[in-house]
């Protein structure tokens, strides 16, 4: 069930997505949030005192972030905690001790294809003393960075990018940045705003970021940034109450060294909750927070609308499916990263779905809208791209190769389809390590638990 196959004449690894023999019944412990881990690393690196990150996600994106901060002089010590270290109490397991230091170059940073690394770190590099060079995977050269580059230049930074507004580039850090008011079009990525806010307490004048473009995607991620800044002692003003939308002000201040326990990555819970919906089973995700800014929390509402039910207790979130899937008409503008798995579930539904507000997904790890339409259609589906999303008309599906385009969320979507469709071969399932280490092991473990439970009954 976990084997890797290679297609004849091709060295691309193919993973046979397991088909569910019946209803799943499992508890799946999802690793920590990538978004929280990478924001936590930056805030700890810019703090005035050492801090802890407990239960951090160890994945390609977070290890790239840690390596980049180390290259600029930050100390990050990895240890295993029994919960007695620091002041956070019963948060045992892996912990990272972050020791701030004077940021410096020369340094070379590999961003991989991580949006948080390529966008959050240039403002940090502007505070370093010396040049910091950024490069990454070929796809990273195609992803927009103009919002961060233009804003940093307006705030006084010197950046060499040959006029491309993209990687590769070099930030010539001067040891400080004046800061002040800046305008940015973040309609292609909310990360442009978060990038400026995270480093703003260290700018001499702080920052006032004013979004000038069209609708702003993924607002929950900006709320996460603001909440984490405030928890670290920053003064952040978001004057939406007075009618002034799309403006964030951060005052210059020292950041606290926190003892932060990282929440489970709720977006990475999507395929496992989808498994309960698709198979009419039950999946529990431990430690689901009662209150969170993670976009993945919207899964409770979305998957309930598609035919399941959920219960949040002190243990975690238990989601139960009926085996009947209802299509939806949903605006996913704020939670676009959930789209691939939702699209996979919609392709197995009993009625049509329309997913809207997600044109910005064309600029993610791959063009996710084009990729989802092409790959589901190659399996017999009927998916069409709209101006800002997808229209999905369920059709009987068949097996075949599902290409992932080195996109972790495409791979997990393919696994969901494989639950109900025999013969789905997932190309390069290892790309899931970007944010979800050992996804194949977690996936087959969930299905094995259901098999064991059925045998006992």
Automatic annotation (TrEMBL):
Subcellular location: Cytoplasm
Pathway annotation: Metabolic intermediate biosynthesis; chorismate biosynthesis; chorismate from D-erythrose 4-phosphate and phosphoenolpyruvate: step 6/7
Catalytic activity line of the entry: 3-phosphoshikimate + phosphoenolpyruvate = 5-O-(1-carboxyvinyl)-3-phosphoshikimate + phosphate
Domain Enolpyruvate transferase: 21-440
Catalytic machinery residues: 337 (proton acceptor)
Top-rank EC class of the record's enzyme: transferase
Pfam family, one: EPSP_synthase
Binding site for 3-phosphoshikimate: 34-35, 39, 189-191, 218, 337, 364
Protein name as it appears in the record: 3-phosphoshikimate 1-carboxyvinyltransferase
Taxonomy of the source species: Bacteria, Bacillati, Actinomycetota, Actinomycetes, Kitasatosporales
